[in-house]
Amino acid sequence: MQPLFSLLPLTALSAVCLVGCSVHSNNPPSAQSPEPAPHRGVFVTEGHDTLTFCGDGQSISWHLNTASAGHPSSGQGTYAFLFHHALYRYDLAERFVIYQGSETIEQFSLSPAHPCSDTLLILTRFTSGDSQDLIFHKVAGL
Q1: What is the pLDDT tens value at each position of the chain, 142 positions in all?
Q2: E strands along the chain, which residues?
Q3: 8 A C-beta contact, residue 9 and residue 15
Q4: How far apart are CA 14 and CA 103, in angstroms?
Q5: What is the model's pLDDT at position 79?
Q6: What pLDDT is attached to residue 5?
Q7: How far is 66 from 68, CA to CA, in rounded Å?
Q8: pTM over 0.90, yes/no
Q9: Contact, 60 vs 53, CB < 8 A?
Q10: How far apart are CA 86 and CA 3, in angstroms?
C-alpha cells in the first residue's frame, strides 16, 4: 500500500501541470507599440483585387476578382479587424471582415507571422478546405 501513496503526489503534480499548460488565453496579444493609424489609400493585389480605405477606420470600397460565391465582387461598406469577436488593432488582429450593412461580404484570416502594416495586407481566405492568400500592396494614398 505504501508505493501507491508515494505515487499520489507525483500524479497530482502531473495533473496540475497538464491542466495549467492546456489553458488557452482568450485575451488579445499585448501591444508593445502605439496603435497604428487606420489604413488610408488604395491597396492592390497582382490579380487586380482592390481595397480602398477612406482613412476613418470604418469605410471601405472593394473590387475582388475572386469574391466568395453569393457575395458581390464590388461595393462599398465597412470593415473591421478583429480578435475573436471584438474590434482590435490591425497589426495584432486575427481576422479581417468586410460588411455591407449587416451582411458579412468577406472574411479573411490574418497570420501573426505576417502582420498587417500600413502598406501591406496579407489576407487568407479558406474555402472548401483550401486556402488562398491575397497580398495587397498600397499603391496610392487618398
Answers
A1: 555 555 444 444 444 444 444 344 566 666 678 889 999 999 999 999 999 999 999 999 999 987 777 788 899 999 999 998 899 999 999 999 999 999 999 999 998 888 899 999 999 988 778 888 999 999 987 6
A2: 40-44, 50-54, 59-63, 74-83, 86-87, 95-100, 103-109, 120-127, 130-140
A3: no
A4: 48
A5: 97
A6: 52
A7: 7
A8: no
A9: yes
A10: 52
115-131 core/surface letters (b: 16 or more CB in 10 A; e: else): bbeeeebbbebeeeeee
pLDDT for res 136: 96
- For the chain, the farthest-separated pair of C-alpha atoms sits apart, in whole angstroms, at 78
CB 81 within 8 A of CB 90: yes
Residues 67, 102: contact at Cβ < 8 Å? no
Closest C-alpha to 51, from 39, 40, 63: 63
Alpha-carbon torsion angle 113, 138, 30, 131, nearest 10 = -40
Between strands 59-63 and 40-44, the pairing is unpaired
The grid coordinates of residue 48 equal 487586380
| Of residues 2, 39, 6, the one with CA closest to residue 116 | 39
Q: What is the distance of C-alpha 74 from the center of its chain?
A: 21
